[in-house]
Amino acid sequence: MPDIKVTPLGAGQDVGRSCILVSIGGKNIMLDCGMHMGYNDDRRFPDFSYVTQNGRLTEFLDCVIISHFHLDHCGALPYMSEMVGYDGPIYMTHPTKAICPILLEDFRKITVDKKGETNFFTSQMIKDCMKKVVPLNLHQTVQVDEELEIKAYYAGHVLGAAMFQIKVGSESVVYTGDYNMTPDRHLGAAWIDKCRPDILISESTYATTIRDSKRCRERDFLKKVHETVERGGKVLIPVFALGRAQELCILLETFWERMNLKAPIYFSTGLTEKANHYYKLFITWTNQKIRKTFVQRNMFEFKHIKAFDRSYADNPGPMVVFATPGMLHAGQSLQIFKKWAGNEKNMLIMPGYCVQGTVGHKILNGQKKLEMEGRATVITGTLDVKLQVEYMSFSAHADAIGIMQLIRMAEPRNMLLVHGEAKKMEFLKDKIEQEVFVRCISCYMPANGETTTVVTNPSVPVDISLNLLKREMALGGPLPDAKRPRTMHGTLIMKDNSLRLVSPEQALKELGLSEHQLRFTCRVQLHDPHSDTDTLGRIYTHLKSVLKSYSIQHVPDGTVIVESIVIKVTSSAEEPNLKVILLSWSYQDEELGSFLSTLLKKGLPS
Amino acid sequence: MSAHINHVVVVLQQVSLEEVPAKKLRLTKPSKSAALHIDLCKATSPTDALQYLLSFARRPVEAESVEGVVRILLEHYYKESDNSVRLKIASLLGLLSKTQGFAPDCIVDDAINTLNNEKSHQVLAQLLGTLLIIGTQLPDKIAVVQRLIDVACKHLSSTYFGVRNKCLQLLGCLGTVDKPLSKETDAGPGAQTSHVRDVQSVISDYFQDQDPRVRTAAIKAMLQLHERGMKIQQTIYNQACKLLSDDYEQVRSAAVQMVWVLSQLYPESIVPIPSSNEEIRLVDDSFGKICHMVSDGSWVVRVQAAKLLGSMHQVSPHFLEQTLDKKLMSDLRRKRTAHERAKELYASGEFSSGRRWADDAPKEKVDTSGVNLIDSGACGAFVHGLEDEMYEVRISAVEALCSLAQSSPSFAEKCLDFLVDMFNDEIEEVRLQSIHVLRQISTHITLREDQLDTVLAVLEDSSRDIREALHELLCYTNVSTKDCIQLALVELLKNLTKYPTDRNSVWKCLKFLGARHPTLVLPIVPELLSTHPYFDTPEPDMDDPAYIAVLVLVFNAAKSCPTMPALFSDHTFRHYAYLRDSLSHLVPHLRVRNLSALESAQNFLQDSLVRVSALQNLETPGAQDLLEFTIRDLLRLGELQTELAGSADFCATYLHCQLLLTKALQEKLWTMAVPLCLKQNWLSFDDLEFLYSGLETQQIATIHNIRLQAKALQLILTARSKPGVDRVLGACEKFLQDVESFQRLFMTELPHFQDSFVEKLLELMPRLTTCKPLDLVKILQTTLRQSGFIHLKLPEQIHRASATIIEPTGESDNPLKFTTGLVVALDIDATLEHVQDPQTSVKVQVLYPDGQSHIIHPKPGDFRTPGPGRVRLITQVYLSHSAWTEACQIEVRLLLAYSSSSSKQSASKPAWNESMGGLPTSESCIESTIHLSKPVKVFIMPKPARR
């Protein structure tokens, strides 16, 4: 039986380093090629030696698909394509293609320039890698080769994030990447049509969470910022350069506009500025409101938000500053934090999760005094944290209900969970298998390197000749039962890798064969005192009474014809009472013929 | 392509050229059919024929020649081999049978005959469409309808989806409501029962058709049956529910409707829940299913589902409340929603929300088997709907919430948090809608402090619409504590300082807030008025809008709280007196010391009228003085007592008219004073009749009576000033016509007109019609002198239509500059009260210094309705003028247009104007309009265009 094999190289029962191999219909596809944030050694990248021990990957992979620009989905791409070696096509959406190299370059800088690692990919490699990228649009079906086609669907999550449908013949797999089923201030909700894939590979970051309404969180956030600004305090919001930062900007920008506020909002320069530029360009990928209003004004051309300069931090009066990085572990956000921490009028809003060991994590856990180590330039010693600290989570992954919603939308035959913790997946897996969907779904959650095999039942397309179809239709009953399977007679011709179903006559003609009639004959002996003609007459009346809906003819030359079956009666000279009934039928009427023979063997009713 | 178009154009021209002689022929007894016949015979190719038919279809055909045309078309139909031409003919047949006055019975047979021989599917579908049109024209002919249904059933098995579609449509539109399809059932039951099936089961067979378009058509046909009053069988329910998970959105969309219809038809019947042996009411089941559709993949379906939810009032409260319920969970631990947390915080008295990270940390562990992720039916439907990506869905969800909340107070309480959340939506329309909705359900709810806080945060919104909607909402809101009142006041004052233009709206809002919560205001009065038990505090500035706002709140609360005035200091009473006078619509009457208790204003009004009615003859000395004083009193009363303003003004105007008339009559010498009086009177009459709403016929008759008097006077004047028989003759006839029309219009009211001018006139009518004009004039003169004074009886409620222009204020000294010849937009903001049908009747008039005047009709969208009886007009008028040397003032005012009996009006007016000769035409009164507002002056300055 044909099957689909899925092997996660990363993100199997784990978050980070997304990389999934799929073999479908003889094609091998790599979905995402990410790095792991938690490791600094070889485990950082997926283990490509699984594909091949030595040599290039090109001959083993038909294509690589990148779902979005987060580094845990695309971080290993230059390493794979340039250092391991892959020359085939890499597919990603337009925004991903635009933003991805910026992040890769940033990643490279931090690893090589700051941490001083060697044997890492270079800027040139990133450029070379991006040359291999084939960009595609939403809902655009791209033919990778004659059989393999891929199609992108909107996934929310971040700008340009997409879900991919991979299809070979009638077998298909949908890979979601990261997605979000609830719209936010700048992106819409993920959407897919009822494509009924064989496997749906879904992320499951929030497999065990059902989230509260987004509006409460937004309102809280705005209220806190507003209150602080009104009493003259400063607000620091540490963010990562891309994604949530833009959402928060839009949120604050519209709020400022609505409420007619005057306090300045600053955005730390550098990476974010570049990213904002791309957000401006890819308006079509954002949500309804931004798409509809961009004719009057592009929402990403912020009126109230200006670029930040180091000196502004000391300005008097209220202000709101977005600064990188998001976990307050270094850089501009930490510097500003140190300056503002002493004033209880100020506020710090953490919009995301903080890794253990960072300043952000300590503060969130309520630490009031911080030991500042290191460089002499800034304050050393202890730092009193007097400013208010708020935690506001704005995360853009689908929650448990969202995942269910997607399953309902796509109606897959099998589910495969990746990009989540094993324990949480377990729960979701149970739930999916319990729920009553249109069709019963079995759910898998392979670990890294573990292969899941799903047997498929691909349909084999056969060309059918129109004449044959019409002829069969004419025989058929009323139309509304058109969905019910029906048997039909025809000849299957397999020729030049194609299958055709034609009428027997046409097949004969095409193959240059003459038709052979196949007839079965059968003698049935019967004791009957009457004369031959009378016996025939009795057979005729008997059949007439048994086979009501068949055409039965009594031909004067001494035969009875039932459909195409000929019945004759002869009697041997020596035993006039022993009649021999001769039945003859063609191959096509085998069923009726054997029925008649058994019927006549039972004898005639007296 | 362009060549092709050119070709078509050429053909069209040729056709129209050829048509010219045909048109001429028609004068003699041409028939259109003949021309068509000729054309069609001339056609050499199908394209030609098609062109002829197309041009033929552009012109209407008279009812009598329809049949002939149809015959010719049919004849060609049979001859024609080209599908497209036959298709066009078929569609023409349908078009023709719709002709007014043509009974399509006669072509039914032919149309059905054509069906039998037709091979092309498209043409067949079109023919069935034609039959459908014919059938809908003849709903009473049962035999015809029956035949058409038979035809439709026969063609249902067609392989082409279009044919099946049309057949289903036909069945839906014509399927007999009460009888089964075949008539045979009546004749012999049993024999043919297998063939006899009613329309519904025939249609429902096609719910499973392979083509989604046919499935949609089948559901639509079923809905059509329902609309025509046929009771849909309950068995359809299960089939319809299956279609809810169809692959195609139009099928799902129709199926949602179908399920909804059935839920309304059989709300109480019981259906089993699959995979369990429980049973629930059908309406609950369908509610759950439609709720499910709120998270459908297609937004069209989502909008529809959300809308329909709003009309399912019979659903059990338990199910209803589920729609707002979403069990939160984080890492398998039960989590409380932010709403629940806010409520608990409020209950525990601690008013702060999560300062710390993990403040919302989940507590109890969830039993994994108990969590139901998808099959929860109604669970969280509205939570999803309100968070939807498309604002259309959100708006319909908000509307549905509103309609459900209005019928269920407990649900209203629950949905409050969600509605308040919607105040932060990104689309203004949604925000506005949710504020309106909250206002509509506000009778059921009391806002908690934290909720009020969220509501009030929106007061800083820069959109005026939002702020005003919110003020309107606050007018109707109940709050729970005195802190809420204080909070609201503080926020409103903040709003006032930020947006000074909101003054009126804020004051009004505080008026209602005070009147609603007197007991809550009482404890905070000393604080509000900053009084102190021992020390005298400085007297606040009386012109400070914020101080006025506070006073409005306090005074309105004091109205129903008699102990409150004791807390006021002396200056408060003085300020009360001042405000009662200047802002009488905001400050109610209080029974406080120092102020003599006034008699009820109503009594005063009645007293004044009684006093006036005591006058028999207005010519007695002192009578006119009395009238004048009464008029003055009434006008003042109207200002003080807003409820009586309409009645008082009405009386005052009426008395004023009467007074003027009497004065005119007293002038023995017929000097110029009389025409002037008359002129003023004319304006008042229109005001009286059209500006006030709530008038009864008696009052209108009274007005017409006095108007007749004025006309009589005018006639006399004409006769005296211009001695020319012709002219007087015309005027006399006109006058007599007026009298007759009065009699005709107010026949029933005549008994009330004892001893009046009209009564006397009607008595003399036979003499009047025969006598000479000059005699008539003499008679009129004596009758006028003799006739008495008709007393006005007041109807229950009279409202005066009024308008105030809020912007422009007319106080600006800076001229509005614009380039000559170009336009400048002037923002106008006005409130209209008691204006009926403002969209059509209210106009803006702009009067330029050179006497030119323009009337501008505002767009219907510029009128907003913030509350009952009140309309807000926010519009822009475009001004333009040639250059002046210096800035000049233009006047802007609102006019009320009226139409009834305007013809009489306009007919009488020119005559009078002519007769008055020298008088200039009244500079601002445009025909059939009355002034609705005071004019506002705007300084404008056209600058010469720079070259």
Automatic annotation (TrEMBL), chain A:
InterPro entries associated with the record: Beta_Casp, INTS11-like_MBL-fold, IntS11_C, MBL, Metallo-B-lactamas, RibonucZ/Hydroxyglut_hydro, RMMBL
Domain Metallo-beta-lactamase: 16-233
Molecular-function annotations in GO: hydrolase activity; metal ion binding; RNA endonuclease activity
GO biological process terms, semicolon-separated: snRNA processing
GO CC term (a single one): nucleus
Pfam families the UniProt entry points to: Beta-Casp (PF10996), IntS11_C (PF21386), Lactamase_B_6 (PF16661), RMMBL (PF07521)
Main location class: cytoplasm
Signal sequence residues: none
Domain of life from the UniProt record: Eukaryota
Subcellular location as annotated: Cytoplasm; Nucleus
Keywords annotated in UniProt: Cytoplasm, Hydrolase, Metal-binding, Nucleus, Zinc
Domain Beta-Casp: start-end pairs: 245-363
The protein's required cofactors: Zn(2+)
Family: Belongs to the metallo-beta-lactamase superfamily. RNA-metabolizing metallo-beta-lactamase-like family. INTS11 subfamily.
PANTHER family from the UniProt entry: CLEAVAGE AND POLYADENYLATION SPECIFICITY FACTOR FAMILY MEMBER (PTHR11203), INTEGRATOR COMPLEX SUBUNIT 11 (PTHR11203:SF37)
Protein name: Integrator complex subunit 11
Species this protein is from: Cyprinus carpio (Common carp)
Automatic annotation (TrEMBL), chain B:
Keyword annotations of the record: Cytoplasm, Nucleus, Repeat
GO cellular component terms attached to this protein's record: cytoplasm; integrator complex
Record's keyword annotation contains Repeat: yes
UniProt cross-references to InterPro entries, sorted A to Z: ARM-like, ARM-type_fold, INTS4_8HBD, INTS4_C
Top-level taxon of origin: Eukaryota
GO biological process: snRNA processing
Domain Integrator complex subunit 4/Protein SIEL C-terminal Ig-like, first and last residues per copy: 804-944
Primary location group: cytoplasm
Domain INTS4 8 helical bundle, residue spans: 602-795
Pfam families: HEAT_2, INTS4_8HBD, INTS4_C
Localization in the cell: Cytoplasm; Nucleus
Sequence similarity: Belongs to the Integrator subunit 4 family.
PANTHER family: INTEGRATOR COMPLEX SUBUNIT 4
Protein name: Integrator complex subunit 4
Biological source species: Cyprinus carpio (Common carp)
Lineage summary: Eukaryota, Metazoa, Chordata, Craniata, Vertebrata
